[in-house]
Structures are given as C-alpha cells and as structure tokens.
Specification:
The complex is a heterodimer of chains A (about 525) and B (about 210).
Chain A lengths: L9 E7 L6 H9 L6 E8 L5 H7 L4 E6 L5 H9 L6 E4 L5 E2 L3 H12 L4 E13 L5 E7 L8 H6 L8 E4 L2 H5 L10 H9 L5 E14 L6 H6 L2 H12 L13 E6 L5 H13 L4 E7 L1 H6 L7 E5 L6 H9 L6 E6 L10 H8 L7 E3 L10 E4 H10 L5 H7 L5 E2 L8 H14 L3 H13 L5 H14 L3 H14 L3 H13 L3 H16 L7
Parallel strand pairs in A: 1-2, 1-4, 2-3, 6-9, 10-11, 10-13, 11-12, 14-16
Antiparallel strand pairs in A: 4-8, 5-9, 6-7, 6-8, 13-15, 14-15
Chain B lengths: L15 H15 L3 H14 L5 H12 L3 H14 L4 H13 L3 H14 L4 H14 L3 H13 L4 H13 L3 H14 L4 H24 L1
Helix pairs in contact in B: 1-2, 1-3, 2-3, 3-4, 3-5, 4-5, 5-6, 5-7, 6-7, 7-8, 8-9, 9-10, 10-11
Classes of the chains: A alpha/beta (about 525), B mainly alpha (about 210).
C-alpha cells in the first residue's frame, strides 16, 4: 500500500488479564504498525490495573475499557466490538506481538487481492525460557501451523490462530457476537461462525509471534483445557452453533431420526448423533409435542416434527420433509451405529461438488437399517411422485440412483496421510516420512510450503542432503523460516559449502534475535 | 490464542536456537574465523548449558590455535557434560598427542572408538599414535571395524594394507591392495605398495623354500 494513512480504518482488539509485564510489548507492536489508520481497544478483563501503561503510551488511537470484573474474553470482545468503527477487525493477545507489516499485509490482501472477507497470515510460535525476573530467552521460533483454508476441517476443529486473523467487521452482523458462555476455544467459535459466510484467504507471510513458555504454561486457555469435561462442553457448544441464515457458503443438513418409540436407546442414539456430527445440522424428531417437551435434553439443534407415535418410517420421513430446511437430508433409523464422521464421509463429495450423485447409502446401511444422505430436491421429487411406496422404492422408481462412497472420496485424506508422516517421524523412519510429504506435494493436496518444510527436515534426518536442500530452498525462496534455513545450512555444510551455510544461518540468527522480520 | 497442540507435532522446540548457533560456530571454525566461531559457541552454550557440542567446538579452536591448556579444559567440560561423546574423548586424545603423551593419546582415542567406531578422527589418531608407539594390533581391529561400516573406503583400506605390510602379514596386505585397485585402477600408491608387497612375499617364499 503506497500510503499507509489513506487505507480503511482497522480495529485492533487487545484483551488483557494480569500480564502487565508483557502488555507494553504487545501495545508497542500495534502503535508502531506501518499502517496508521487504526483504532485500538485495550480491554482489561478485571485484572491488575494497567491504566499507567495505557497513559504512558500516550497514543490517542487507544480506547481503554477498564473492566473491573473478570467476565471472560468473549464478553470483552463483544463490548469492544459494539463500539468499534473499523472496516476490518484484528486481534492480539496481551503477550503476543505483531510485526510492523502485519496490519498492512492483511489490509492489502483484503482490499486488493481477494474477494474473501477474511484473511490470515502465518505466525511464529516462540518457545522460551522464563527467567526469575520474567524475561524471556528465545529457544526456538517455529511456524507450527501454515495450513491452507479448509472449511470442512474448520467444522471439526480450528486451523487458524486468533492473532493471525483479519476480517470485515460487518461479517459479525451476519454471524452474531461471540458466545459468552465459552471460556476456551474462543477463536474457533469465531472462525467456525465466519466460514458460513466467506472463504478465508491464506497469506503465507509471517507477520507476528505468539509465546509458549516451556514447562507449566500461564496461558488461561491452556489451564482451562485441563478440565476435560468443561473443554468438551465448549467443543460441543461450538460444533452445534448455527449462526443466522442465509448462509452464503454452507449448505444445511437435516437429519431425520426415525423411531417407533422414545426410550433410552433412542436417547442414546440422539446423543451419539450430537457427539459425532461436526457438519452443521439440525436433527428432526417426529413425535407428539407433549412427549418431545418431556425429553430431558439440553441438546441444541433438535427440532420437533409434531406427529402421532406409531407412524411408519415412510410417514415419518414425509411429515418431517415438510419442515426440513436443509439442502441435504440424512435419514437414520434407531439402531444404526453412529460413529465419528458417519454422515460426513458421504456428504463430503456432494457439498464439495466432487460428484454428480444425488445421494449415498451409508457404509453400514442394509435392508433393515437403511441409511441415506441425499439432496433434498431429489427426495422431495421422489416422494411427490410415489408417495405410497417406501422411500427407497420411490427413489428407485423415480430413476434416482444412490451411490456407495469410494475410499478416495472421503474427507480428510490429506490429514490421514499427514498423520502417517508424523507417525513415521516419531518412529524415526525419516525416509518414509519424507516420501509421504513428497507424495502429498506431488498429488496437489495443497499446503505446499508446509509440506516442503516437512519434507526438507525429513530428508535431512534421513541423510538425503540433496533432497533436503531442494525442498528447503523452495521454502526459503518464498518465505524462509528458522527451521528451513537451518535445514539448508546443514545440507550446505555437508557439501562443505560453508559460506552458503553461514549465509543461511546468519539469516536465522536475525530472526531469532529480533522481534521483527522484514523478508521483502 | 487457541490451538490443540495434540494436532500438531511440536518440533525442535527447545534446541532450535542452540542448534543454529552451534552450526554457525562450526561453519566459522571450518573457514578459520575463530573469533566469530567462539562468539557463536559462547552463545550456544548459554542457550544449551547442558550441551557438550559448543565445548567441543571451543576445544577444536583452541587446539588449532595451539592453546593446549584451553583445549584440554574445553574437552574436559564436554566429557563431563556428555561422558559418552566420542568427539570429546578424541579431542582430549588430540591434546595428549600434541603433548607427545602417546600412551595417553592412544588410550583416549581407543575410548573414543569404543563409543563410536565410526569416528574417523579417532581412527586416524589411533593409527598415528600406533605408528609412534609401534603397536598395531588394536588399530587393525578398529580399522577392520570401520571398514565393515564403510566398505570401499580406499584410504582406510590403504592404511590397513600398510599396517599388514608393516606386520609382515603380506597375504592380507596383498588382498586389500588388490581390492583397492579393483575399485580404483589408477591408484598409484596402492599399485606401488602392491609391488613392494609382492616383492616381500616372493622374498619370504624364497626364504621359506631355502629354510625347507
């Protein structure tokens, strides 16, 4: 951007809680951004008084929200956003920092390079040893996550970091505020809601740092994760959140649960659906409203279809279909074993546009427990034409063929292979690990920089220095990291090319020794 | 900031900065820039206070600068930090060798080779001290061990052939030299030594026939 003062206003949120010794570094990194048109909110969430830090900074762009009670991060974010005026919003932890080009890089991307309304960059995770006086000795700077946008993955778990994000503020008008009942995974709550309305653009530049002390972490999020029950509650809350419609980027899934009576077994089956379905959904339960009201459940996304008990499965489907909002329908009778990814495996090729099939019969489906996921339009059409036939027969008679999912169509293939590579690494089988990453690169699974880095390190450890050099150079030409510079240097050293090795290592020293980095 | 650490393998998290400084020290030492190398090793040892590597580097620099006391002290620290580090023991051996304490050097090289039979510095050091002491049995053992791991290393093969020759084990020497010449037909040193071995062998046979 030629003039850093003429771009749109950007809101930067810095929540803080009891970290007065690190907060000045975080604030400093924001006020010294190359991009100047900022409004900055520092929100103290009932921690020690930091007014003197704000006063000492003396920057008029800072708005200080001095909360007296510890009410949680989502409350403070909502509070600040209710006052925010920026076109874009970004976030910074009170012990993290932006490099000077962070805001500029992301604004430039969102303004000129993409139609996405959210962009994210890469960050260094900085492992450090904490001295008695609170000082931090940097032990490593590692880009642990450099994953290209994957909406399906985001339904299951987060792959972006709060500090790396910038999004349009008006997206939140669609997606709604942060869920104030959450106390961990606040950033995933945000990103998962936003994927309903926009794609995310991955900027591969490293534009900031977040800290990870060795040993016992003082991070609130890490401490809270130790309560597994509470953590699971947060995960399930986020997974079942359905932001307001219309959704620009996501098709809805309606699951019709068929049962001739509501008993413990049916209740358990509903619980399994809730726990094992990460794709956004609603579960439709055809039964009398008074019985539905008596079901003792906190399960969200459960929709009653008023219907008398004792209807046939086919009648239950027809009654539910009138109410279903999803573009896709899953029909599942009681007794069907619900496991992780039970419906997503078959849904994936359809929502990703990888198939022309109108639907799939699920893996464990059989004559007695016939389970299907299908485009709603086709199902409605078949039922209209042949209402007296069973659902399966009406589809067949209408000429709709149901596919069976093929192994190469299921989601998370990249992750399966990646995990395999990680396992080889743990076992010290570096050649196999390198070959896996090489395969992922050759077969265009995306995440090129990340896979090149892993391949480089694996081949170095396997003693294949030429390959290590080739892969690390690919990364270092585009976006060097300490790790890939180190690999390049070690490979060059093996070739007795000491001056090249020194060049790479000096660059690495530059990154490790300073808080900022300008590669370009 | 929220992310599951379980999903992402944490890599090099404690040693990366140390590793960079130590590698840089090694590179500067290799190009003869000892002052820079020393600064790098100092920084590395502050980042990894329990690592032997920087002390070995400092020892090598001191040795190359003729500062034997400094070198010995550095290698001693390295041995204390990592008692099984072959390079540290070999470093101490090199100091002893420079001080012409051949027996001690021999023992220390031997210790280095026991810890890592692949350590070429220790192997060659052992060979040199063996020559100085006139005792070849142990070095032959380690040369053979090394060749098991590095078959086709003609320089070590040649050393072994020379030792066999010196020990009047002419048949063994001839076999090895023949192998070298198969691998490197233009190896003049091997050809010359083979000629000498053949001559000695013929002479020995003559003596043997005469004796019979």
């Amino acid at each position: 951007m030629s003039n850093y003062n003429n771009g749109p206003l950007v809101t930067v949120l810095i929540p803080t809680y009891n970290r007065p010794h690190y907060l000045p570094i975080a604030i400093d990194s924001v006020v010294n951004q190359q991009y100047k048109n900022l409004e900055i909110f520092v929100m103290n969430d009932g921690g020690v008084d930091v007014s003197d830090i704000i006063d000492a900074c003396g920057d008029k762009r800072i708005n200080f929200i001095n909360g007296k009670e510890n009410r949680g991060l989502p409350v403070r974010i909502n509070q600040a956003l209710s006052q925010a005026q920026g076109k874009y919003v970004c976030y910074l932890g009170d012990d993290d920092l932006f490099y000077p080009n962070h805001v500029n890089t992301l604004v430039e991307t969102l303004e000129y390079k993409t139609d996405c309304q959210l962009a994210y960059s890469d960050l260094y995770k900085v492992y450090c040893r904490i001295g008695a006086d609170g000082s931090r000795t940097v032990l490593s700077k590692i880009v642990e996550i450099s994953r290209d946008f994957d909406r399906f993955f985001m339904f299951n778990f987060n792959h972006t970091l709060h500090v790396s994000l910038m999004h349009r503020r008006d997206l939140l008008d669609k997606a709604g505020p942060s869920n104030e009942s959450l106390n961990v995974l606040i950033d995933w709550d945000l990103t998962r809601r936003l994927v309903f309305y926009t794609d995310f653009f991955h900027v591969h530049d490293i534009t900031g740092e977040f800290y990870a002390p060795l040993g016992k972490s003082d991070r609130i999020s890490v401490k809270r994760r130790q309560n597994l029950e509470e953590y699971t509650r947060n995960v399930m809350t986020i997974r079942t959140t359905r932001p307001p419609k219309p959704w620009d980027k996501v098709d809805d899934l309606s699951i019709i649960f068929l049962t001739d009576r509501f008993d413990q077994k049916a209740g358990n089956a509903l619980g399994s659906i809730w726990k094992n379905t990460c794709y956004p959904n609603e579960v439709y339960l055809p039964m009398p409203p008074e019985q539905f009201a008596a079901i003792n459940t906190q399960m969200p996304n459960l929709v009653n279809v008023p219907a008398p008990m004792g209807l046939s499965y086919q009648q239950q489907v027809d009654t539910s279909l009138e109410k279903c909002q999803g573009e896709y329908i899953a029909i599942v009778p009681r007794g069907y074993p619900i496991q992780e990814m039970w419906v997503e495996d078959s849904l994936y090729p359809m929502v990703q546009g990888l198939t022309d099939e109108i639907g799939y019969e699920l893996e464990e489906s059989n004559e007695q427990l016939w389970v299907v996921v299908i485009r709603k339009e086709a199902l409605v059409n078949a039922r209209r034409q042949y209402p007296s036939l069973s659902v399966k027969e009406s589809l067949a008679r209408s000429g709709y063929h149901l596919g069976k999912i093929k192994p190469e169509q299921i989601p998370f293939q990249f992750d399966e292979l990646y995990n395999q590579g990680q396992k080889f690494e743990k076992d010290g089988d570096w050649i196999s690990a390198g070959l896996i990453y090489e395969h992922l690169l050759d077969n265009k699974y995306g995440n090129e920089i990340w896979m090149n880095s892993l391949a480089a390190e694996s081949f170095l450890n396997a003693g294949q220095y030429d390959k290590a050099l080739a892969y690390s150079s690919k990364v270092n030409e585009v976006r060097p990291t300490v790790d890939t510079l180190l690999v390049e240097a070690k490979a060059k050293k093996k070739q007795k090319d000491y001056s090249s090795a020194i060049g790479a290592l000096e660059k690495a020293v530059g990154v490790l020794g300073t808080r900022q980095l300008q590669w370009k | 900031m929220e992310i599951s650490e379980d999903l992402f393998l944490t890599r090099n998290k404690e040693k990366q900065h140390y590793d960079v400084m130590k590698e840089l020290g090694d590179c500067y030492a290799s190009t003869g820039e000892f002052e820079k190398a020393q600064q790098c090793y100092d920084k590395a040892s502050s980042l990894g206070p329990d690592e032997a590597g920087p002390y070995i580097g400092l020892g090598v620099i001191a040795l190359q600068s003729g500062l034997l006391d400094d070198a010995e002290m550095a290698f001693r620290v390295a041995c204390r930090l990592d008692n099984k580090n072959a390079e540290a023991w070999s470093g101490l051996a090199m100091v002893a060798q420079k001080r012409e304490d051949h027996e001690r050097a021999f023992d220390l090289y031997l210790k280095g080779l026991e810890l890592d039979a692949d350590n070429l510095t220790a192997l060659l050091g052992l060979f040199q001290t063996s020559c100085q002491m006139g005792s070849f049995d142990k070095v032959i053992h380690y040369l053979k061990l090394y060749l098991d791991m590095h078959p086709g290393d003609t320089s070590v093969m040649f050393t072994l052939a020379a030792l066999y020759m010196k020990g009047r084990q002419f048949e063994e020497s001839r076999n090895i030299l023949g192998n070298i010449l198969t691998l490197e037909p233009s190896n003049k040193d091997a050809a010359n030594l083979l000629e000498e071995v053949e001559h000695s062998l013929a002479h020995a046979r003559q003596l043997g026939v005469g004796a019979a």
